[in-house]
From TrEMBL:
This is Indoleamine 2,3-dioxygenase 2-like. Keywords: Iron, Metal-binding, Tryptophan catabolism. Belongs to the indoleamine 2,3-dioxygenase family. It holds the Pfam family IDO. Gene3D superfamilies: 1.20.58.480. It comes from the Eukaryota. InterPro entries: Indolamine_dOase, Trp/Indoleamine_2_3_dOase-like.
């Protein structure tokens, strides 16, 4: 009877959380167009980079009709509508850089955006679930998920680097899928007291984290740091904890009081939240609060999945209780790979934000640079110099999150004979020139 009860309790299926077997948290086969009634939105959203650079996006939005949203019927239609409206909103707010922002989002944009957002349970701002999870198309539908075979549906200023940034992040999400699919096996294995099943599933999680790191490395090949820092980053920014939008944004026709939302960031990806809950990583204080808040920027069913993992599982206690050498080693390796991923992510942030930020400061001070570079630096958001797009104080936050991951280890900081990499060394190896 015991077994029967356990099985009913643990018949966890990813499907009930709208997580796809093939695509994980990625929206399978996003629609590429909306019903013809929404052509005014799609025409603007498709031309956003050109309209922004010609300073005419705001004018086009002022002339846009106020459309009804009830003709959007399916989840995929709503997701494409959210993506299009969020791209328009970002362009509208940031068209003139951080100095000439707006206080009000006009009603023909804000009203439908808030309605669509409410139906999806998402905030009315550009988020990871838009730009990465619902913004892709395969050139050859039968071909692989590869950089050559993928394209974006909608984009922002920054050309090929924007494409690289969103699609490499999509590949990181893809690399995580085998690990995500193993989570139910870990949960079931613990309920069944089956050490072998848990060990095997955990090994798959560790390998997936390793593949995510390999995918993350592609960022260097596809994204130019000065374009990321000088052009792209502002369009991912939000109006919470952002000095250049300190009062937030009024969504006209929705509510008179300004609203505040964080900018888009892969901190809103559900993947690492799942792995943290699985391994029992405990984020506390302001870092923990930020990460918890980021869950409100995820599709609600994905957030529920993360909460399900945390409430149904203590893998760490199981590992300690079993005291099985192979299981313990696999658990440790998994934690170590997660630390390794976060260390690598820190070196990426150093290259794409910290170094360009210090170069920008230097150049602003002595003005010795090419006209083009100076122009890019002038436009780069100074309010975000020490901050991530989500509004966090970057390095302190990322290192705290990394250190909390390290604290989850059972034995101390070694992975077999392999000593964990020293992130400060890795970061200092990246020189400004
Ligand atoms: C050029 C590439 C990237 C840059 C510059 C970057 C930058 C940042 C920054 C500044 C933060 C701090 C939070 C915030 O302010 O939003 C952050 C957090 C985070 N990023 Fe990235 N990121 C990049 C790529 C990625 C990719 C591809 C992933 C993979 C999904 C990722 C996953 C995360 C996660 C999970 C967090 C939360 C902190 C953590 O859990 O360790 N990032 N990132």
């Amino acid at each position: 009877m015991g077994t029967k009860v356990k099985n009913t309790q643990t018949s966890l299926s990813l499907k009930e959380f709208h997580i796809s077997e093939d695509c994980g948290f990625i929206l399978p086969e996003p629609l590429t167009d909306l019903p013809v009634y929404y052509k005014p939105w799609m025409d603007i959203a498709r031309n956003a980079p050109e309209l922004i650079s010609s300073h005419s996006l705001r004018l086009r939005i002022h002339d846009m009709p106020l459309l009804e949203t009830h003709l959007l019927r399916t989840h995929r239609e709503l997701r494409l509508a959210h993506l299009a409206l969020s791209i328009m909103t970002s362009g509208y707010v940031w068209q003139e850089g951080e100095r000439e922002t707006v206080k009000v989002l006009p009603r023909n944009l804000s009203v439908p955006f808030c309605e669509v957002s409410q139906r999806l349970g998402l905030p009315p701002i550009l988020i990871h679930a838009d730009t990465v999870l619902a913004n892709w198309k395969k050139r050859d539908p039968d071909g692989p998920f590869s950089m050559d075979n993928l394209e974006l549906l909608l984009t922002l200023p920054g050309g090929e680097s924007v494409r690289g940034f969103f699609l490499v992040t999509l590949l990181v999400e893809l690399a995580a899928i085998p690990g995500l699919k193993s989570i139910p096996d870990v949960i079931n294995g613990i309920h069944d007291n089956d050490v072998a099943v848990v060990t095997k599933a955990l090994d798959v999680v560790g390998q997936a984290i390793d593949s995510m790191k390999q995918a993350l490395k592609l960022m260097h090949e596809y994204v130019d740091p000065s374009i990321f820092y000088g052009i792209m980053r502002i369009y991912l920014s939000g109006w919470k904890d952002n000095p250049s939008m300190s009062e937030g944004l009024v969504y006209e026709g929705v509510q008179e009081k300004p609203m505040e939302f964080s900018g888009g960031s892969a901190a809103q990806s559900s993947i690492l939240h799942c792995f943290d809950e699985l391994l029992g990583v405990q984020h506390e204080g302001s870092s923990g609060a930020f990460l918890t808040r980021m869950r409100d920027y995820m599709p609600p069913s994905h957030k529920q999945f993360i909460e399900y993992i945390s409430s149904h599982l203590s893998l760490r206690s199981f590992v300690l209780q079993q005291a099985d050498e192979h299981l313990t080693h696999t658990f440790e390796q998994c934690v170590s790979r997660l630390v390794d991923f976060r260390n690598y992510h820190i070196t990426i942030v150093t290259r794409y934000i910290t170094i360009p930020a210090s170069r920008a400061k230097q150049l602003r001070a002595n003005q010795q640079c090419l006209a083009e570079e100076l122009d890019m630096i002038r436009k780069a958001p100074t309010a975000l110099e020490e901050r991530g797009t989500g509004g966090s104080g970057i390095m302190t936050f990322l290192k705290t999150v990394r250190d909390k991951t390290k604290d989850t280890t059972i034995t101390q900081c070694t992975n077999g004979n392999q000593v964990l990499p020293d992130v400060n060394k890795a970061a200092s190896e990246l020189t400004i020139d």
